[in-house]
Design brief:
single chain, 157 residues, alpha+beta, Nucleoside Triphosphate Pyrophosphohydrolase, six-stranded mixed β-sheet, two-stranded antiparallel ribbon, 8 strands, globular
């Protein structure tokens, strides 16, 4: 059975010593009115012959309009129920005045379903930082493990 490889980057920042993480909300008509449990860590599928870390950086930039910077923290991989392996890295985001959080990647689908009419929309319609406590309810449940791993790694000794 073919396994789909996906990779991404979880940006985090500290505001007044409180951890926040960056999540993206899927665009398009299907997710328009959905919120809890549908947000995601910016990620996407690998291209042929592309390594996971290259995919992670490319997808992060496409979905957030940011360029991640070193150092990176490897958060590992999970396998979803749909036979997809997701690998995630993290980095600490340092705001820059010129940063504009927005998705620069577009998707085209037939809509309404089973018609010949197509629509094009941003892959993600929102890019936001959330306090870590709130992020757990926003993010897709299968990605909560990455938030937990980040908490363990960043916990002061």
């Amino acid at each position: 059975m073919y396994t789909i490889q996906s990779a991404g980057i979880l940006a985090y920042q500290f505001i007044n010593q409180h951890l926040q993480v960056l999540l993206v909300h899927p665009g398009g008509p299907f997710f328009k009115k959905k919120d809890e449990g549908v947000w995601s860590i910016p990620k996407g599928q690998t291209h042929p012959n592309e390594d996971l870390f290259t995919t992670a950086k490319r997808e992060f930039t496409e979905e957030t309009n940011l360029i991640p910077t070193e150092p990176y923290i490897e958060l590992g991989s999970i396998q979803t129920r749909k036979n997809k392996v997701v690998s995630i890295w993290a980095y600490e985001y340092k705001p820059h005045p010129k940063d504009q959080l927005k998705c620069i990647s577009q998707v085209t689908i037939n809509w309404p379903p089973k018609t010949q009419t197509s629509i094009t929309y941003p892959e993600n319609d929102r890019v936001e930082f959330f306090p870590i406590e709130l992020a757990f309810s926003k993010v897709s449940p299968n990605q909560q493990a990455f938030l937990n791993k980040l908490l363990v790694i960043l916990k002061p000794a």
